[in-house]
Write a structure and sequence with these properties.
It is a single chain. By secondary structure, the chain is mostly helical. The chain has a domain of about 35 residues. About 55% of the residues lie in helices and about 10% in strands. The chain has 1 helix and 2 strands, in the order αββ. It is elongated and about 80 Å long. The N and C termini lie far apart (about 60 Å).
């Protein structure tokens, strides 16, 4: 048993049509499409972060810890 069946989807679409009206619905869908497109472009333009590797820490014979850079 899924979360949404065909009837649920039909009722949601009917409510959206009543709330926004037939004239504004294409504009709303266009705006949503533009938002999704700009989001995808922003995600693909993201540059990978350049981080330095953590410093190597090696214990000495005496048990002290020193950082090697």
């Amino acid at each position: 048993m899924g979360i949404f069946s065909g009837w649920h989807l039909f009722i949601v679409l009917l409510i959206v049509l009543v709330v926004f009206g037939a004239g504004k619905l294409p504009n709303v869908m266009r705006d949503i499409g533009r938002g999704v497109k700009s989001f995808k472009e922003a995600m693909s333009d993201k540059e990978p972060e350049q981080t330095e590797p953590p410093p190597v820490v090696r214990p000495t014979i005496e048990g002290e810890v020193k950082k090697n850079t």
